[in-house]
Amino acid sequence: MRLNKFIIRAAYAGTCGLLLTTTSKAQSSLDNYIEQGIASNKSIQQQGFILEKNIYALKEAKSLFLPSVTFNTSYTKAQGGRTIGLPLGDLLNNVYSSLNQLTGSHAFPQVANQKVLLNPDNFYDAHFRTSLPLLNAELNYNKRIKSQQLDLQKEEILLYKRELVKEIKTAYYQYLKAMNAVAIYQSSLELVNEGLRVNNALLKNEKANRTAVLRSENEVSRINASLTSAIASKESAKNYFNFLLNKTLTDSIIIDVSFSLPPTQNLSDQGVDKREELAKLTTAAAINNNVTGLAKSYLTPKISTFLDLGSQEFDWKFNSDSRYYLFGVSLEWNLFSFGRNTYKIKQAVADQKSIAAQTDYVKIQLQTELSVRQHEWESSLAQYQAAVTQQRTAQTYYGDEMKLYKEGLAIYIELLDAQNQLINARLQTNISLYDMWIAHAAIERATAGFIIQ
Questions:
Q1: Does residue 149 contact residue 287 with C-beta atoms inside 8 Å?
Q2: Which UniProt keywords apply (predicted)?
Q3: Can you name the CATH fold of 2-73+133-302+337-446?
Q4: What pTM was estimated for this model as a whole?
């Protein structure tokens, strides 16, 4: 009875973590970890800052269509330089002399000729200028490019997030694989200890020799060593998982989930059209189209208007005579620039061809990746199904051999072979199950199937 109890416990410990159905709580556990990883990832945070910068760049591009108001002032102090002669004396003195004779007075004094300095001396000009673009194709293309650069950065962030989701899922499954391997070795240790106990009992009853006991002791040592290695692998898997979540490496991992087979619906029907890599190239092509339009925008004249409200006068005077307004409309049209604009257009067209070629190449590359992932999935599924059958057979084989060995109808080497087959079958079932989940995460990544909030 005690032997049967050990067999049942070992079989349960080796398979309970593998074949139970997935619970809703389990899914929330992994999803919560994914949310934590996305929220705490430094690379994603850095890309978020770049996105914020692009948002402000778009707002800046939109603000260029609105009026702008600037304040300008200047003061000049001058002496010397060119002058202009004003012959006031030659023009007025004869007239003034005649008037003085007629009036018998000196009311009209003589006036000297004047020289006026062309450079304004002790002169100020202060004004507010309000300007507004009326027609400017460059501003339109600039706004479109900034908007598309914002979309491009959003795709970049999604790309970072999707890759991180795959890494977190893979690390999570690797940890579960290592954790279950530890459980399997622990249950296997009970098996070999039970075998050692049986051999010691048979040796006392002179139904077995010393060699069987020594082999049993060696098996105990071997399983202990394997258990130690499995524990180390489990800790390494835990450290890497916590590293992805930007947490303390030794933090415990909540495991409230048991996995059955991954969902297989439409795995072979999914394509790569939702991949962010293709979306980025599509956006890049749209940006390049607007860059081409920007290069051609020189064909359209620029029209803008302005209004100056200010004051200008000598000796810092400010009165109704010094105040002024000035309104104007300006037109700028680039008619000839020795082919510079043509070269810009040709550069943009060349970039457009390059992006188109890159898009075709990346699409083939992504389709190849998906095909490889699908084959890996099919292989892992076949290996798991074979491992389950092998474990079931190995469990029966070990039970039969243990009974025969106790009754003296089988040699120890046969029992040892059945025991090793059972342990290896459990390990292979554990490995193949989580390899399926890892392959499923890879296909999910290859098809951009995971919904990122």
A1: yes
A2: Cell outer membrane, Membrane, Signal, Transmembrane, Transmembrane beta strand, Transport
A3: Outer membrane efflux proteins (OEP) (1.20.1600)
A4: 0.79
